[in-house]
Automatic annotation (TrEMBL):
Descriptive protein name: C2 domain-containing protein
GO biological process: calcium ion-regulated exocytosis of neurotransmitter; synaptic vesicle endocytosis
Family the UniProt entry places it in: Belongs to the synaptotagmin family.
Pfam families attached to this UniProt entry: C2
Domain C2 as annotated: residue spans: 118-237, 249-382
Transmembrane regions listed in the UniProt entry: 50-76
One Gene Ontology term, aspect cellular component: dense core granule
Keywords noted in UniProt: Membrane, Repeat, Transmembrane, Transmembrane helix
Native species: Perca flavescens
Record SUPFAM superfamilies: C2 domain (Calcium/lipid-binding domain, CaLB)
Origin: domain of life: Eukaryota
Record InterPro entries: C2_dom, C2_domain_sf, Synaptotagmin
């Protein structure tokens, strides 16, 4: 029997509920289960509750901010579209004719004009001598050219020809790392007055790249029928976007040059070609490369690569060495030509280029780089020209004089 203290009062025993004070046992059982699941999940996270709540609040604010940015962008886009539609509606009057006020540039016109002007300007001259049927095109200088390189500059040069015949193509020298080159070069074309009025003078400004395709910056086309030939024309003109027609792409070829003056060896390494012209019915070609040396404008020595079957992007990696003395190297021209091999018919010329003492532009630069870096191979890509363009500039004589009359040749041709 329990001992009851005299001063102690006993209270009736009451059964209390065993559920958590935070759980509403009379509520929705689904809600109770969800709350218990969330509490158990939060208890498993090794962070204090205040940190967890702060992370949730930050995430919610980030989502809200993203939604707000999307809404603002959509609203601006809608307003811009409505503005353009309104401008298009106001372009014409009731009679369907534009008003003179529309000729004045608005904001859109100013932006478009600046996009055109950013290609730069070119100062050129035109002079025609009717007595000698000679057209002289002068490339003076360029200004504010478009930067094509990562350093914010370009390596510009100008290519000049007369269309549509394009019998000759000239190139200026290359200026390194500048947007304001001063060329001061002149090029002469033989053209009759009757043909002059049907021709177009084309001046294309390129950015030079040694190991990739040269990028065009812009061009100028002058319809010669609109020129007043009573005096010399000299003017600045904005470079325009290059035309995407007219020029036939004959492909490119990459080769290296190495000259060692101590042992009088010239080594030509034919590396590869790409984007050659299709010559066969199946849309391919069987290209090979012919390497020819001309001394004093006379055919001298030649060699050729192997034939690559059914490809427009052949890889050769073949080299040829010629004996050329230092005295001869100053009078030698190197002719590189690509041919399509045919077993039953005559081989077809696919493209041609020449370097040497009579070359110009990129071809002369490559040759000069070789001479200024003896014993070191210098590789470069070149765009192929038509045989007519090269032959009109480099006129070779057919036969080599007798060997006993030219003792400096140093042996028979190879």
């Amino acid at each position: 029997m329990p001992i009851i203290h005299p001063n102690t009062t006993t209270l009736p025993v009451t059964d209390y509920p065993t559920t958590s004070p935070y759980t509403n046992s009379t509520g929705n059982p689904i809600a109770v289960a969800a709350v218990d699941f969330i509490n158990n999940l939060l208890n498993k996270i090794p962070l204090p509750r205040w940190a967890i709540y702060a992370i949730f609040v930050a995430g919610g604010l980030l989502v809200l901010l993203c939604c707000l940015c999307i809404c603002v962008k959509c609203c601006c886009k809608g307003k811009k579209k409505k503005k353009q539609q309104k401008e298009n509606i106001n372009l014409k009057g009731a009679d369907g004719k534009t008003t003179t006020a529309l000729v004045q540039p608005d904001v859109a016109d100013v932006d478009y004009g600046s996009a055109k002007r950013q290609r730069g300007k070119l100062l050129y001259s035109l002079d025609y001598n009717a007595a000698q049927s000679e057209l002289t095109v002068g490339i003076k200088q360029a200004n504010n050219l478009k930067a094509m390189d990562l350093g914010g500059t370009s390596d510009p040069y100008v290519k000049v020809y007369i269309g549509p015949d394009k019998s000759k193509t000239f190139e200026t020298k290359v200026f390194k790392s500048t947007l304001n080159p001063v060329f001061n070069e002149q090029f002469t074309f033989q053209i009759a007055k009757s043909s002059l009025l049907k021709s177009t003078a084309v001046m294309k400004v390129f950015d030079f790249n040694r190991f990739s395709k040269h990028e065009i910056i812009g061009e100028i086309r002058v319809q010669l029928c609109n020129v007043d030939w009573n005096h010399v024309i000299e003017e600045w003109q904005d470079l325009a976007e290059p035309a995407k027609f007219e020029e036939e792409n004959l492909g490119e070829i990459c080769f290296s040059l190495r000259y060692v003056p101590t042992n009088a060896k010239l080594t030509v390494g034919i590396l590869e070609a790409k984007n050659l012209k299709s010559m066969d019915a199946g849309g391919t070609s069987d290209p090979y490369v012919k390497v020819q040396l001309a001394l004093d404008k006379r055919k001298w020595r030649k060699k050729k690569t192997s034939v690559k079957k059914k490809t427009l992007n052949p890889y050769y990696n073949e080299s040829f060495t010629f004996d050329v003395s230092f005295e001869q190297i100053q009078r030698v021209n190197l002719v590189i030509s690509v041919w399509d091999h045919d077993a039953l018919t005559r081989n077809d010329a696919m493209g041609k280029i020449f370097l040497g003492c009579d070359a110009a532009g990129n071809q002369l630069k490559h040759w000069a780089d070789m001479l200024s870096n003896p014993r070191r191979p210098v590789a470069q890509w070149h765009s192929l020209l038509t045989a007519e363009q090269v032959n009109s500039t480099l006129v070779l004589k057919r036969k080599l004089p007798l060997q006993n009359k030219l003792p400096f040749l140093g042996g028979p041709p190879t």
